[in-house]
């Protein structure tokens, strides 16, 4: 008989299972889950390895890549150098390595049971697809989680700790080196500065102000570096007109609705039965989970901070998009919001509430979410093919019946 798996290996098995899924998805996808942004990352990483600095080829000359910060391509280059793999598969290893690092940290901070529960978030379809891509978001989310944790430790301690302050400061710089959107922590820190000033905690207020200044100085320094090497602050024109607030509200509403979609994105332009059924089914599953939990949810300071940072990021993204014409918010851009919301929700579930039935419901919820990884065009095409075949069979039967009746 097989021996029962030791609980201390659950997180390791979860990491291996997640990594296998990511590599499998990347392998079977025709372009291995790469986009135009991915090509920037990969080309820059390749040029770093070949001694051309952090550049991309434009025309006949190599130009500094100011479009994206250096963090993610540098990580790809480092992994590619030590593993001797090409930059494409090195990027997948970076994402899987980020997962492993996160799981290790979860185990240290939250223990085995809670860390496995939080780690299962990455098995949801949208996060599997996000991790399978050559994108900087997986690394960004792991760093963001660590930043929120150290912020929580700092804000809930009676005295300031130099080590905590240093961790928050360093992780903040890493966030901005991986994604420009990481600058959202600067206004958030300023909000905390005024909040502590209002509470009369002058030392914490001063600390929040100082780290905001350091982050601002670091980000400005990087922009100056971009300008000196490429002649542009962000590698391209990003602020070339405004978007109407009503249009922005509509875009974010669609994006947030799609976060609970199941069979691919809901287009809102044409009727899509798969997306509609997916949304309804997922809502039904959420209701079942909430009922099973009997609405017993522990909103600790850690949970609240996850929600605060998540909604502040959402507001920051909303305001930024009014002045910058980036893509409509989808699962990629909204991933920091969704990730922190889910981490907060899962953290609020007590161990006593994790009954066998609730675990089974969550497993079903995760497996059903994998339908989102399947391209909706493929499902729609197969659905129409089945309908066409059924119509052809019925037509043949009618023709045979008429022929038989005439004879």
From TrEMBL:
Presence of keyword Membrane: yes
Top-rank lineage group of the source organism: Bacteria
Regions that span the bilayer: 9-28, 89-110, 170-198, 205-225, 271-290, 302-324, 330-349, 356-374
UniProt keyword Transmembrane helix present: yes
Protein's name in the database: Glycosyltransferase RgtA/B/C/D-like domain-containing protein
Keywords assigned by UniProt, alphabetized: Membrane, Transmembrane, Transmembrane helix
């Amino acid at each position: 008989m097989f021996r029962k798996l030791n609980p201390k290996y659950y997180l390791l098995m979860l990491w291996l299972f997640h990594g296998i899924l990511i590599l499998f998805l990347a392998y079977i996808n025709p372009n291995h889950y790469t986009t135009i942004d991915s090509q920037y990352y990969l080309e820059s990483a390749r040029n770093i390895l070949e001694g051309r600095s952090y550049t991309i080829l434009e025309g006949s000359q190599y130009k500094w890549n100011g479009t994206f910060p250096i963090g993610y391509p540098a990580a790809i280059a480092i992994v590619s150098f030590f593993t001797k793999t090409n930059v494409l598969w090195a990027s997948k290893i970076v994402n899987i390595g980020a997962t492993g690092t996160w799981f290790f940290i979860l185990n240290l901070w939250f223990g085995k049971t809670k860390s496995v529960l939080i780690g299962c978030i990455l098995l949801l379809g949208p996060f599997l697809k996000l991790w399978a891509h050559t994108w900087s978001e997986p690394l960004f989310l792991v760093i963001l989680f660590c930043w929120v944790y150290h912020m929580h430790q700092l804000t809930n301690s009676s005295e300031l700790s130099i080590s905590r302050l240093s961790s928050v400061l360093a992780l903040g710089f890493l966030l901005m080196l991986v994604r420009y959107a990481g600058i959202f922590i600067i206004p958030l820190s300023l909000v905390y500065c005024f909040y502590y000033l209002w509470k009369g905690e002058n030392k914490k207020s001063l600390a929040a102000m100082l780290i905001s200044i350091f982050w601002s100085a670091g980000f400005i320094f990087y922009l100056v570096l971009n300008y000196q090497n490429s002649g542009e602050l962000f590698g391209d024109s990003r602020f070339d007109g405004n978007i109407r607030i009503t249009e922005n509200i509509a875009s974010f509403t669609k994006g947030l609705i799609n976060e609970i979609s199941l069979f691919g994105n809901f287009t809102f332009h044409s009727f899509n039965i798969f997306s509609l059924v997916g949304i309804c089914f997922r809502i039904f599953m959420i209701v079942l989970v909430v009922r099973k939990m009997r609405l017993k949810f522990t909103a600790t300071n850690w949970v609240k901070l996850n929600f605060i940072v998540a909604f502040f990021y959402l507001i920051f993204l909303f305001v930024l998009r009014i002045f910058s014409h980036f893509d409509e918010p989808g699962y990629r851009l909204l991933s920091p919001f969704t990730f922190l919301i889910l981490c907060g929700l899962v953290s609020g579930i007590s161990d006593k509430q994790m009954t066998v039935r609730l675990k089974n419901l969550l497993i079903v919820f995760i497996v059903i979410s994998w339908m989102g990884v399947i391209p909706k065009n493929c499902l729609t095409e197969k659905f129409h093919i089945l309908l066409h075949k059924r119509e052809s069979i019925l037509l043949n039967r009618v023709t045979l019946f008429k022929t038989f009746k005439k004879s």
